[in-house]
């Protein structure tokens, strides 16, 4: 390295060592402004390792200095961009895990309430039980239930109302009761 304006051949051991000793601390301080102290050390070490492998030849010391600062800045920006992508992927993953967990809990609660409701339907009087099984469990309309059980539509509606009253009474005051009411209202 020549201060007076000659070429800077970083493939030359003496030039490379002098460049390292001259610029390492300043480049590390410069990088710290972008990425913090711990990361700046790794970035500058990697930069000098790349320079050593490339054996760059620069026209003069001014060119070398400008090149080193620009390379440091670019390395810091690449690091920030990479960390941003990692953070974004991690954040998306956490959101998905939270969503899966919420779905799992929702499905678990929903399934348990339905199981409790099915058990309760089994203890209803015979006609109410059949109407509720066909309507609630199998999803038939009042007309289809009436046709299936050879009843009038109004009789089916009466059995449903009676069954719902009994079920509401059975579930009154419980969390299952609130969910039960929600299931039938939605």
Automatic annotation (TrEMBL):
Residues 115-167 form the RNA polymerase sigma factor 70 region 4 type domain. The keyword Transmembrane does not apply. Pfam families: Sigma70_r2 (PF04542), Sigma70_r4_2 (PF08281). Residues 20-85 form the RNA polymerase sigma-70 region domain. The keyword Transcription regulation applies. Keywords: Sigma factor, Transcription, Transcription regulation. Belongs to the sigma-70 factor family. ECF subfamily. This is RNA polymerase sigma-70 factor. It comes from Olivibacter oleidegradans.
């Amino acid at each position: 390295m020549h201060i007076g304006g000659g070429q800077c051949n970083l493939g030359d051991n003496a030039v490379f060592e002098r460049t390292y000793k001259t610029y390492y601390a300043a480049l590390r301080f410069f990088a710290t402004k972008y990425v913090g102290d711990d990361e700046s050390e790794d970035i500058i070490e990697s930069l000098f390792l790349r320079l050593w492998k490339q054996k760059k030849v620069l026209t003069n010391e001014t060119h070398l200095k400008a090149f080193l600062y620009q390379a440091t800045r670019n390395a810091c920006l690449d690091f920030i961009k990479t960390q941003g992508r990692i953070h974004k992927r991690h954040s998306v993953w956490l959101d998905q895990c939270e969503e899966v967990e919420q779905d799992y809990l929702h499905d678990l609660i929903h399934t348990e309430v339905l199981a409790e409701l099915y058990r309760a339907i089994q203890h209803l009087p015979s006609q109410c039980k059949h109407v509720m099984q066909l309507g609630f469990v199998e999803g038939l309309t009042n007309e289809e239930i009436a046709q299936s059980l050879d009843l009038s539509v109004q009789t089916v509606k009466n059995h449903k109302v009676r069954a719902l009253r009994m079920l509401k009474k059975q579930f009154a005051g419980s969390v299952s009761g609130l969910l039960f009411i929600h299931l039938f209202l939605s």
